[in-house]
Automatic annotation (TrEMBL):
This is Alkaline phosphodiesterase I ). InterPro entries: Alkaline_phosphatase_core_sf, Phosphodiest/P_Trfase. The lineage of its organism: Bacteria, Bacillati, Actinomycetota, Actinomycetes, Pseudonocardiales. The keyword Hydrolase applies. Keywords: Hydrolase.
Length: 374
């Protein structure tokens, strides 16, 4: 039982290196064959899956017209990994953001969005400095070194977060508060010799709370389409804009609470990941038994692999560095269909959400690549 084969689909990590190559930055490969540009920007719409856009094309006519092909985001299909792919041009096996939560040996399970302990919520910025967790050069640093103005346009509240420092170092940060100043600041940056990364997260939020395709989600999609329309209409001459996403989303209606199944807890030291993509860290010597138990209990509801199998099958990209390998679970489980592996007591908020993502299905893996030129 194999996940969908998407190796021929370009990876999200190829977008920014291709944009920088279009700007003439040395050492960047233009694998997406983008045209030369004076300035370039990427707008990441959190949670906008390729299949969701196709299903709701009438709510997003501008995006639908511009989105001619999909990208794949790699495993896990989650925001920390997607933002890091933008910020490094690499897949999770190299940049190291291998989950919404994942174990950092010697420290515990890190929540990569909040940079806190997933077990007790304690702040881990001191114990895990962001540039030690993700030490590779960022795409923003490469742009700045080539004399290009590198800027991030995103919510003001994210300015000094650890994930921002880990993945967006080298950029000047323009903190914004709503769609209006997001559009205005992005266009202002693109009016010069610049590279700009802009982020919008509200579609993902409403998908989690109300479900992808819900009335609230569709209303937000229409607002996103107006945002894209205003950016396209205002693009300066010579500017190139790519609109992408970090993952798609599915509505989970088949939950299994891991805490209620003794067979899934035996030999398990701790958990990482999220509802649709689980890292299972085992007690010494228990990995084989845990793998067998998880395969037996989950059956066809999930793809279940040992760490070695997942790496060999390329789940985390072509390369998994020695630095990153211990962060991957001894057992890794990726949900199929509308299945979710919840932890009702330990992860009450996450368990309550309707929309989920993280796995290897095409609904979660494929996102749009929409291109426009000024």
């Amino acid at each position: 039982m194999q996940p969908p084969t998407l190796a021929d689909v370009p990876h999200l990590g190829q977008v920014v290196p291709s944009l920088l190559a279009a700007l003439g930055v040395p050492g960047c490969g233009n694998t997406l064959r983008l045209p030369e540009a004076r300035s370039a920007g990427v707008l990441l719409v959190d949670g906008l899956g390729w299949e969701l856009l196709a299903e709701h094309a009438a709510d997003a006519p501008v995006l639908t017209e511009l989105a001619r092909e999909p990208l794949r985001v790699g495993f896990p299909s989650t925001t920390a990994a997607g933002v890091a792919a933008i910020g490094t041009g690499l897949a999770s096996g190299e940049h190291g953001m291998v989950g919404y939560t994942f174990e950092m040996p010697g420290t515990g399970v890190l929540n990569a969005l909040r940079w806190c302990s997933h077990e007790d919520g304690s702040d881990l910025r001191g114990a895990l400095p962001p540039r030690e967790v993700q030490p590779l050069p960022t795409t923003f640093e490469r742009a700045a070194a080539a004399g290009i103005d590198a800027a991030v346009v995103s919510a003001a509240k994210f300015r000094d977060t650890a994930l921002t420092l880990a993945t967006q170092s080298g950029a000047r940060y323009a903190g914004v508060h709503a769609l209006g100043d997001l559009a205005a600041r992005t266009l202002s940056v693109l009016d010069g010799r610049a590279f700009c990364y802009a982020y919008h997260g509200d579609l993902d939020l409403l998908g989690h709370v109300y479900g992808p395709g819900s009335a609230a989600w569709r209303a937000q999609l229409r607002q996103v389409d107006r945002l894209v329309e205003s950016l396209v209409d205002g693009l300066p001459a010579g500017a190139l804009l790519a609109v992408v996403a970090d993952h798609g989303m599915v509505a989970v209606d088949d939950q299994l609470d891991l805490e209620d199944v003794p067979e899934l807890l035996s030999g398990v030291r701790t958990f990482g990941g999220e509802v649709r993509a689980r890292h299972v860290y085992t007690e010494p010597g228990a990995a084989a038994d845990v793998l067998a138990a998880w395969r037996a209990v989950l059956g066809e509801r999930a793809w279940v692999r040992s760490r070695e199998e997942a790496v060999a099958e390329g789940w985390f990209g072509h390369t998994v560095s020695d630095r990153v390998l211990p962060r991957i679970g001894d057992v890794v489980a990726a949900a199929r269909g509308r299945f979710g592996m919840v932890r009702g007591l330990a992860e009450a908020v996450e368990t309550s959400l309707i929309g989920q993502h993280g796995s290897l299905t095409t609904a979660e893996q494929l996102v749009p690549l929409a291109l426009a030129q000024g």
